[in-house]
Amino acid sequence: MFTGLVEAMGRIEAVADEAGGKRLAVRWEGLDAPLAIGESVAVNGCCLSVVATAPERFEVQAGPETLLRTNLGGRKAGDPVNLERSVRVGDRLGGHIVQGHVDATATLRERRREGDWEFLAFDVDPAWTVLMVPKGSIAVDGVSLTLVDVEPAGFSIMLIPHTLAVTTLGTLAPGDRVNVEADVLAKHVQKLLGQVR
Fold this sequence. Notes:
The chain folds into 2 domains: about 10-85, Elongation Factor Tu (Ef-tu), domain 3, CATH 2.40.30.20; about 105-190, Elongation Factor Tu (Ef-tu), domain 3. The chain is mostly beta strands. The chain has 4 helices and 12 strands, in the order βββββαβββαβββαβα. The strands form 2 sheets. A 6-stranded antiparallel beta barrel has the order 1-2-5-4-3-6. The protein is globular and about 45 Å long.
């Protein structure tokens, strides 16, 4: 489980094809201690297990389902990624409950500056907007955010200068794909009400 409060913006160092998947080497500058083998790390909001580790560097594997549902399959050496270690019991939950189980990708449709803030609007499969509400929570590339508006096939967010500076969302351009995870509470309510897709 994660909070959606990105700890660092890392960088993909290498991508290698594996049978049915990919292996990604990630640089995490400033990491205070090597990650443990098997530890969970959210990479652009996708929960992955560490399979190799070194100072300020780790490797993860992404299987077919992960590559199908996320933007990690399109990442290449040099690309920035958002990083967060899993939450520990007793930590503050400053964002919202993020599982690291990406539901789908969304595409940036519009970006405009509003003072020091920026407004971003995304297109997404309408099957996911039923789980979104204005002023509700959403994880976009692993960043816990508040929804501004929700449309039948899209949603919008506002980003403060800090988020623009310390996450990959600051460099998004129209047409770029992001990972989206809907609020897990909404998913459970949908199932309990018998509205499962």
